[in-house]
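agent> step 3/5: call structure_predict on target 'DUF1876 domain-containing protein' (Streptomyces filipinensis).
agent> reason: downstream docking stage needs a structural representation; sequence fetched in step 2, passing through unchanged.
tool.input:
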Amino acid sequence: MTRPVRSRPPAVKEWRLNLYLSEHDPDTTARIILDTGENVLESHAEARRNPYDPDVPEIGDELAAGRALIAMGRRLLRAADGDIKAVGADDIEDATPLWLARE
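tool.output (status=ok):
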């Protein structure tokens, strides 16, 4: 007779992400603060409107926020890579880097 497999209830975590946008025409700056409860990570990005383009603040917000979110994703991937190495897991070389060397 087999016994049913007991499973643990899923762990639920909440991470808080605050995104701050500031506009100083023609520049828009995005700042992200991610609080995981154990760590706090921060990223920044900018967007600059071409002076010949129409003034549409939403576009600058979207570009700056999107770039800051991409930068935050790269920070998280670097943190995970460091944690993987810290626990002694094998390092697997990937032909496609997940972040740029200068970041």
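agent> step 4/5: record observation. The radius of gyration is 20 Å.
agent> proceeding.
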